[in-house]
Design brief:
By secondary structure, this protein is of the alpha/beta class. The chain is about 25% helix and about 20% strand.
């Protein structure tokens, strides 16, 4: 049975890295501390080692240590042997491209389908959807396809906001997602504001957060409140 923790973001404005979600992550992987694998491939402009160190420093108080997947020679075996898998945020296109180039998509999907706990934030949550077509990121690289891990059957839009910039004529986030749904009429998008997350366990998806999420379908929207399941 799949077990996923899908966080909208890692850092709230004015807080330390992972300050809001460290305890949530620790509780989620309780009993799976032995061999936590970190997938750092969403990082761009800084090293995978630096990213891994940043995560370890943030989770040190919870006695959690992650291992950088990129440093391991047999990456498929490392995924197969992991007790839990963390996938960090950054650029979703870059993350998916590297996973595809290394031929790790199928083994990662299989491992999580078998019940290994998966923790993702931002881009790491994005790639659990059927595709990455509802990411906010710029396509700085070109993956072989937009097809992602398909661990949930809906699209995710992290960092969701309906705010618009004053005196700026660009599209709002909701407008862009509405365009996506007009072109993909059967899909649905769960829009996660900052400091919110989905917990997938025992076949049930539960929403957690102090502000409401939004479920968008073609020509319809529904608010999702704290504790709602779907």
């Amino acid at each position: 049975m799949k077990k996923l923790l899908l966080l909208s973001n890692s850092t709230n404005y004015g807080e330390q890295y992972m300050q809001w979600c460290g305890s949530i992550i620790a509780s989620f992987v309780l009993g799976h501390h032995g061999n936590i694998l970190f997938v750092p491939y969403a990082a761009v402009g800084f090293s995978y080692d630096a990213y891994t160190q940043k995560v370890n420093e943030a989770l040190e108080d919870y006695n959690l240590t992650v291992t950088n997947l990129d440093n391991l020679a047999d990456k498929a075996a490392a995924i197969s042997e992991a007790s839990a898998i963390f996938v960090g945020g950054g650029n979703t296109f870059h993350l998916l491209k590297i996973l595809q180039d290394l031929d790790l998509v199928d083994i990662l999907q299989q491992k999580v389908e078998e019940g290994t706990p998966y923790v993702g934030w931002s881009a790491g949550s994005n790639i659990t959807s059927p595709t990455i077509c509802t990411t906010n990121d710029m396509p700085i690289v070109q993956p072989k396809s937009f097809d992602a891990l398909k661990l949930v059957d809906f699209q995710i839009n992290p960092h969701y906001t309906e705010r618009v910039i004053e005196n700026h004529g660009g599209e709002s986030r909701k407008t862009r997602l509405t365009e996506y749904l007009a072109a993909n009429e059967k899909d649905q998008v769960v829009c996660l504001p900052e400091a919110t997350y989905l917990s997938v366990s025992d076949g049930k998806i539960t929403y957690r957060g102090n502000s409401n999420a939004v479920l968008l379908t073609n020509n319809n929207e529904k608010e999702i409140s704290e504790g709602d399941t779907f």
